[in-house]
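Exercise: predict the fold of this chain.
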Amino acid sequence: ENIIDEMPKYLIEGYSVNLNNFGTLRLSLSSEGVNEREEFSANKIKNVRVVFTPSPEFKRILENVKFEQAE
């Protein structure tokens, strides 16, 4: 099966997805605040994001990137 098809399944189940020397993907949720645990429910979740954390190898590559102004 294709990694693109499988990745969302693992992320939704709460796993981080390690892409070897590239980095790791994980989900991050934002919700409306509540005072008591019992007041919280899934409908309080307002935002779901995919967070990418580059691997140390990838970070080193990015440190050496040079930029020049386009003409």
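Check your answer against the key: Residues 3-12 form the longest helix (10 residues).
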